[in-house]
Design brief:
Elements (H helix, E strand, L loop, with lengths): L6 H17 L5 E6 L2 E4 L2 E2 L4 H12 L2 E6 L5 H14 L3 H14 L6 E5 L14 H9 L2 H7 L2 H16 L55 H19 L5 H10 L2 H20 L7 H19 L5 H14 L1 H4 L3 H9 L7 H12 L2 H8 L9 H13 L3 H13 L6 H21 L2 H16 L3 H20 L3 H17 L1 H11 L5 H9 L6 H9 L1 H13 L4 H14 L1 H13 L2 H6 L1 H7 L1 H11 L5 H14 L4 H8 L8 H11 L5 H8 L9 H14 L5 H9 L10 H14 L4 H7 L4 H5 L19 E14 L2 E10 L3 E6 L8 E7 L5 E10 L4 E9 L1 H17 L12 E2 L1
Antiparallel strand pairs: 1-2, 1-4, 2-3, 4-5, 6-7, 6-9, 6-12, 7-8, 8-11, 9-10, 10-11
Helix pairs in contact: 2-4, 3-4, 7-9, 7-10, 8-10, 8-11, 10-11, 11-12, 11-15, 12-15, 17-18, 17-19, 18-19, 18-20, 19-20, 19-21, 20-21, 20-22, 21-22, 22-23, 22-25, 24-26, 26-28, 28-30, 30-31, 30-32, 32-34, 33-34, 34-36, 35-36, 36-38, 37-38
Amino acid sequence: MYGYEHKRTEAQFETTWNELQSALPSGGFLLGVSDNKLLLDGIPLESGQAEKSFATLLSTAGLASLHFSKEVTEEDFVRLVRAFMVAGSKAGDVSKQIKEALAAGKQGSTIKINEVKFVAADPLTGDVSIAAQIAAQTLGPEFKQWLNDPQKLLQLIAAAEGANSGGGTSADGTPMVPLGSVPNIPVGQSGGVPVKGAAGAGGTGTGAAPAWTGGMVPLQEQEVVQAIRLLTRFGQVQQDPGVKEEDLQKELSQADPNTRLNLQQLLGSLAAKATTAEEEDTPLLMKAAEHMAIRFALERYQKGEVKVNAVHQMMEHMSRQMDSLRQILKMQEEKMSKAGILVESHADILDRMFWSEVPEAGKKSVLLSHEAPCVPPRNLRQFVELLLDRDDRQLATDILNNYSGCLSARDNEPRRRTAIGLSQLADLYARLGGEPMGVAVRKLSEQIIAEKDAEMQSLFSAAFVRLSQESSAAKNYGAVNEVCAGMELISVERPVLMADLRARVGVENRLPEFIEEAIHMAPIVPEMLSILRRTSQAGAEHLADRFFRCMRRDECDRMIELVKELGSPILLQLREILRTGQPRQASSGVGLISRLDVGTLLELLPSRLPEWNRFYHDIVVRQIAYGAAPDRGRTLLELAEVLDPLVLPEAVDEIGMSGDMTSVPPLIAMARPGDAASRSPYIQLKAIESLGRLKDAEAVSTLRDILESKKTFGWVYHRELRIAAAQALSKTDPRYSTQVMSDSGLEAAELAIAPLDAAPACPWVRQRRYERMILAKTVQGTIGSSWGKSRIQIRELSLGGGMGTKEDNLRIGSEADLEISLGMRSKIRAHVLLRRARVNEVGFEIVSTDLESRYRLRRLLVEAMNGAPQNKGHEWGGERKV
C-alpha cells in the first residue's frame, strides 16, 4: 500500500523479521496451504479473512508450501516480501515473482518453495477458464459475435484451400477435394498407391484417393504451435481493422497442410456443437486453442510418449504459445487483480482440462502405479471422492494406500511430492476412515526416522502432524494409535525432533475427549485402550481429573471399569502421582486408588496429608466417598488421626453413609462419653448419627446410656446429643420408638428433623446427609473470614448447611465463620466450608459448631417445617427438598 521504502512499511518489516527470528524453531518451519487454510508445520492456523485470502493466493499460484530454514537470512526474506509487493493479487504473477526472487539469490537459498499444480475437482461441471469468461464479457458485441462464429473461420480456411489448389479440378480433369476433407498421407504411405490431392504448393496427385471417413490426423508439436499462432492472428485482425481478409487467406495458404486440416476439423466440430447446444460465453478462439493443446497432450500421453509428470510442463509450453491470444484479456485481469480477485494461471487451466479428458481407466492406472506422486493432490481427491460417492471404498483404499506407499520411493522428488500431497489430502484420508490413515501415519513415522535431509524431514513432520490432527478429529482410533506408536519410535531414534513434534501433534491435548468417548463406549474398542496405555503418563492425570468431576454414580463405576481394563500402566502412574505429585493432582487421584489399591493409599496418604492444607483434606474425604469402595469406612477411620479437625466431622458422616459395618466399634468409642473426652462434642454427635445409619445392635447400650442418663436436676447429656441418640436408637431397634417418646421428654417435631440414611438407588455420587428445607422467609446472617465480612440472606437450610445470597461482591475465601441472628440474645454460630458459589450466591457446609447452636438450628428448622403448609404461596414456596 505504501511501497517498500515507506517508514511504516520499514517498521512493519522490522517487527515481522524480529518475530520470525524469535519464533523460528531449531529445524526451521514449513508454511503450507490446504484449500483456504494456512498450515504451520502441519498445524492449521486461526483463519481470519486476511489469512484465508493469503492461503487462497498461494494455492491459486500453485505454491504448496514455503520452507524457512533455521538459517533464514534477512536478504532472502526481503526478496520474498518484495515479490509479493510486485505481484499484487494476481496468482500467476505471484508464482513468477517468488520463483525469480528466490532464484536470484545464492544457490543455497534459506527460503524454498514447493509447487503443486491443481486441476478441477469435477470434469463434468463444464468449468471454463476464468480468463475466457472475462474475454467474453469485456469484448464488444460485434467482436464477440465474430469470435463465436466458426463458420466465418471455416470460410476463411476454405478460401485459402481454393486459392492454394487453383480451382475445382486437377490437371487431368479429376475433381479436387478441399484439403482437410482427406488425410494428408504422403506418397508411399498408402500401400504404394499415390494419393490424388496430396498437399503441396499447387501439387496434384497421380492416383485415386483412398476412402476417408473424416477425423483429424495425428498432431505434431510444431503443427499445434502453428495452429495456435493462426488463432492468435485471427484475434489480432479484430484489433486492426486495416488488415484485409485476403491477407488472412494468404497466411492460411502458407500454413502446413496438416495444421489446416486439424484446424478445419476442430472448427467444424465446434460449429456443429454451436448449432445443437446453447451458446457459450467462452470465446471461440480461446476454446479452439485450448482444445488443440488438450488433444495434443492426450494423444501423447495415451501413446506413452510422455509420463504424467511431464504433462504439466507440456501445458506450460502450450500456454506460453497462447500468451499473445490472451493479451486481449490483460486489461480486465489487471482490473480484477486490483480489486483483489485472483486470476488462475492458464497453464493450470489447461492442466485441469487435460485431467478431465483422461479416461477413468487411465486415471485408475496412474493412481495405482509408482507414478501416483506426479498426480496433483486435487486430481487424486477428485477421483477418490467420485469413488466414495459410488461407494467403491475398496478401490479408494487401494489408491490412498498406494499414494502413501510412495513415501518410500528411492528418489527424493516422489517422496517430496507425496509428503506435500499427504498434508493436503489429510481430510480425505479421514473421510475414508479405516486402514489408509493408519498406514500413512506409520509410513511417515518410518520416513521421519530414516530421512537425513532437513528440508525433507520438515515436510514429513508437517504431514505427520496434519494426519495426526485429522485422525484425532475424525476419531479414527486406529490411526491415533499409530500416531502414538510412531511418536514412541521417533522419541527413541530422534529425541530432539520428538521434543518439538510432541506439542504440535497434540494427541495428549485430546486425551480428555478420548476419555469421555471411552466412558460411553460399550465395549471399549481395543485401539482406544491402546491409546490410553501409550499415553499413560499424561492419561493418568486426565483420568483422575475426570473421576473428580463425576456427578453420577454410574459415571464413577464406568471410570473404575475403564481404569481396570487399562491395567497396571495407569495404576503405576496414579501411584506415582500420589507419591510425588502436587496436592491438586495427588488429591484428585485418591478416589480411583481408594477403590483399586487401598493398600497403597493407606501407605502413602498418611505421610502426605500433613503437608496439605484443609482444602485438600476436604477433597480427599470426598474422593474416598466417590470411590465407593465397600471398606471405605475403615479407610477413613485409618486416616482420622491425620485429617484436619474441621474435616473430621465430614469424614465421620461418610463412614456412616458407607455401610461398612467393620467401622462400628471405633464409632461406638467415639460416641461413648468417656472415650470422647478428647474430641469435640460435635464429633461425638456425628458419631452417634453414623451409628444410627449403620443400625448395628452393638451400639444400643451406648445409645441408651446417652439418651436415658439423669442427674439430680435434669439430664446428664445435652438435649441435642439425646435427640441424636434417640433417632439412632429408633433406627437400630424400632421397639424403642414408643418408649423414647414416652420417657425421654423429647418432642416429636424435634425428632422429625433427622439425618438421612444411605439410599443405594441414589444416582448421585454423594447423597445429602440431611434433609434441606426451603424456608418460608429468608433469615439474615453474616459470614466473615480473613478476607472480610459479608451479609447473607439464607433461603435454604439443613442441619448440615444451606444456601444463601450475598449482598455484596466481596470474596470471602473457602471457609468462613457464620452467624445467624435469631433475636436480641439468640444466635447460631458455626464454622463453615463454602462449597459452591454462583454470582453472589454461596453454598456452605457446617464443619464445626457448639451443641447449643446446633439445637437452635434444629428449632429454626422445626418452626420452618410447622409453618410450611401456611406459607406455600410465599417467596420460597414453603416446600421441603431433599
